[in-house]
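testing teh design pipeline on a random one, pls ignore if ur not involved
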């Protein structure tokens, strides 16, 4: 009990010191994380104004309706990242099937990509879309690596980032610039691609967040900036942007995972960075592991957070950026 009390005091001090440095508040006044459900929310939160919130969990795509009622939206998909595109179609990283698909508005399922250069993908993980409708997805390999097919010309394994153009062409844009690509987001102006580099089961593995410049043709430019290094704790996973361009990143652990993650204090939650990469606030989530987040609600000021299969929410001061429906 004493340890828990000291943890709360420490986090409160962190909130105060970070909050005093920002020009605009991150959290709504008095906002605290609220536990919404204990199961079914392992990853991929995505908000739809009519459906409510979709999450990946227990092998399915699960639905939490606006009134809190829960159901299975699509069974046995084996999904991870989920994203509604600008036409309201659900794009799905089917990690178990090693492919990226799209659920059309009429219910048909379109396979967008399942191979590159004849090789099957690893575990498509997360998604981002730019203003031209080009889709970016990460392809890490967590767990057993025996079945990996994705390798470069020298036979080295690749856990990179790919782009799917509207005409269906698939291009690898990141090969070895990061160790293990995870969460992704593209800025509104298409100038930058943020990439979570989360190698959490390798001694000395990367726990970093990178910002890459993007060229007009959708390839990465020469500029690569390290935004944050989580060091001894779990690195960044899923992330989203608010309408001020601030980055909300799920990362950290509350318990250690030796020998790979050996932090000496709780660190799980949402880390909020300014567009210039300054840490503005930390929203702690008292559950391991914190995997992703998504904005939702009618005013887009509810931040939903997935953590170890559980689902949390916290009210924020600024609306989140959503592709669907478009901002008024």
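output:
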């Amino acid at each position: 009990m004493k340890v828990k009390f000291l943890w709360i005091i420490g986090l409160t001090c962190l909130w105060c010191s970070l909050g005093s440095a920002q020009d605009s508040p991150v959290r709504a006044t008095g906002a605290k994380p609220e536990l919404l459900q204990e199961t079914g929310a392992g990853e991929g939160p995505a908000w739809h104004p009519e459906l409510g919130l979709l999450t990946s969990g227990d092998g399915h795509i699960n639905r939490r309706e606006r009134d809190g009622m829960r159901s299975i939206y699509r069974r046995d998909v084996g999904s991870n990242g989920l994203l509604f595109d600008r036409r309201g179609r659900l794009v799905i990283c089917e990690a178990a099937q090693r492919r990226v698909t799209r659920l059309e508005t009429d219910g048909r399922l379109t396979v967008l990509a399942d191979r590159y250069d004849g090789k099957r993908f690893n575990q498509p993980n997360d998604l981002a879309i730019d203003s031209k409708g080009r889709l970016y997805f990460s392809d890490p390999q967590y767990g057993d690596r025996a079945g990996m097919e994705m390798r470069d010309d020298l036979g080295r394994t690749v856990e990179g980032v790919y782009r799917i153009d509207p005409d269906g062409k698939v291009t690898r844009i990141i090969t070895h610039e990061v160790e293990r690509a995870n969460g992704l987001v593209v800025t509104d102006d298409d100038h930058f691609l943020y990439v979570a580099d989360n190698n959490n089961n390798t001694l000395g593995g990367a726990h970093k967040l990178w910002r890459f410049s993007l060229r007009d043709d959708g390839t990465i430019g020469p500029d690569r900036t390290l935004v944050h290094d989580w060091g001894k704790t779990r690195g960044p996973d899923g992330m989203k942007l608010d309408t001020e361009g601030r980055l909300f990143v799920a990362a950290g652990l509350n318990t250690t995972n030796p020998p790979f993650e050996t932090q000496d204090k709780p660190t799980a939650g949402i880390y909020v960075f300014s567009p210039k990469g300054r840490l503005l606030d930390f929203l702690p989530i008292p559950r391991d592991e914190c995997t992703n987040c998504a904005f939702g609600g009618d005013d887009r000021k509810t931040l939903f957070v997935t953590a170890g299969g559980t689902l949390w929410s916290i009210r924020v001061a600024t609306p989140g950026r959503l592709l669907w429906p478009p901002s008024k």
